[in-house]
């Protein structure tokens, strides 16, 4: 029991000590009683009956004594491991002895035995040392062990492993561990207090889950026995993923070419990065680099999940011909890892920009007399595209006196190339076409207005080269005669006109005393009242002058025709009242009907109708006896004079002109009917003066004149007659018809002029003396009266009121 308790104690260190102390006390006690000590050494695990030693011999006892003295062996441990073979005196093994159970890990295992011999009682103490044999293999309690290890675990890190148990001691006990071959791991043995060895797994190389996610290790524990025994444990190291891998793009730089006119949403490229990590550590998000410019962000877009790049905005080669875009791929691990690449986007120019026409200098107005080649404006062509798409040529549309003169690159000068005339074209809209060299080309048109500056190159021009003005005589001074007007094709001052009258003489009087002109508008005013009978017309030379510098002028003639007014009453020439008494005519009582008593002759200073005289018998003593020829003024008897008729007859003859108003005068004739008188004697004969040398000359002159006038009249009459016949055939009218004279004064005058102009002044005689009777004496008198310098008086009477 004591021994058993001793062994029990030995399980724990300090109790072992106490056991040893107790044991040694016994031993010293025994030693004092028994001289010497017998010790046997046997290996453990001997078979029952195996001989440990010859106890009788060693104790010096005879065989008989063994039996007699009742030799027995008492085990202190309580368990009877040994017996004494009484026949042979040998100590034999009674029971299996397991040293490892008996002594645990003690280095020596000694079983103390007491040998008791009675008669006399003797106590002997023997020891049996049990030697360890290598009967146990090292053993791991856990056969399979799983270790989880972070991928980023530092090299050199140690992981304690379970140590193997080997109950054997000494050299048979656990001696070493070995690890199956793995480049990342090794095993080291750590000795701890109590001589125990703890294996530790040491990380020799960084783990890489991506290379090897699981390491299968076999740990073998070996003891020191011969042969050595071993035990194994399977160790599975699972490498936990660490986010230690960047997402990696296949290329560092991707190149993309894209047309600048590509539409929004066009896919440019699909980027792909890979990440060897697993789970979220390998989940990639794509984005633009951190410092990407806004100008890039506004144009490009990237799908964070698929990595596809799109056009978000519009490309413009002219704004940016290429882009370098940094792309980042980020995984979702912690910490996150990034990968980078660059996308080079090359924008391909498309001819999307029309050429531009730029005026480098504003077009300046050009003088109409500018010589060919005068620079009007500087123009340049521009195109934002590149290459041929940006090559610009400028062209002019034809039909302008302008051309384009190329100067250095794309610059042109717009120059005049012909004669300019502001009056025909004061402004040119020059259309310029710019075309680029692309296919198909783009064109732009621009209109450049060029104004032409006026030069005084046009003289004023009168509306008529000559003006005819018909002016009634006796007009009020200061009344407006006429208006001339001139126009000037030029502009501004060059077209501003002043009118003036060029001075020259009319009847030795300066024309400026006849008329004056409003210099602003060309209205001409008379300064006099004109007398047709003194002045039948005159000419004015009017000048229009512009205000240009130098100024230009032109002339026009104004013909002023003074129109006759019926301002003169007919004047009686015969019978003349010059004698102061009543004119007397005598005629015989034997006069038959149709006898020409006398002929009244009158003239009118006016002309035309105003001078067209008619005669009428206004009053008579006996109206049945006399008649007056309306046109000739001949006074004739209507019947034969009888005895009953008064010898003194008195006639009042009224002479009227055809003017408006009618002017008239009267003459009273006293006719004496004489009984014995046979031949009428004209009173006129008494009046005829002696023919002087002067009158003889005039007579000759008049005869010649009349002759030539008559011939001319005949010719004219024939021509007119022919004309009239023709005209009357076509228009049914003839200028000579009496009815035509019913118009106003002006048309009458024109009629006279056109039909009778060759007769001129003498034409008036035709009307003055329509009579077929030609009496030269009368003619002379009439002529005298119509000559301007002849001084003569006549009785005139305004009778229009009475009529
Ligand atoms: C010219 O001017 C005057 C004065 O202003 C005016 O009486 C006259 O009628 C004008 N003449 C014309 C043709 O306008
Ligand atoms: C106008 O008449 C004046 C005077 O006769 C003359 O000197 C001038 O040359 C004439 N002008 C024109 C344009 O005919």
From TrEMBL:
Residues 1-36 form the signal peptide. Keywords: Calcium, Cell adhesion, Cell membrane, Glycoprotein, Membrane, Repeat, Signal, Transmembrane, Transmembrane helix. Pfam families: Cadherin (PF00028), Cadherin_2 (PF08266), Cadherin_C_2 (PF16492). The keyword Kinase does not apply. SMART domains: CA. Residues 34-140, 141-249, 250-357, 358-462, 463-572, 587-682 form the Cadherin domain. PROSITE patterns: CADHERIN_1, CADHERIN_2. Potential calcium-dependent cell-adhesion protein. May be involved in the establishment and maintenance of specific neuronal connections in the brain. This is Cadherin domain-containing protein. It comes from Hucho hucho (huchen).
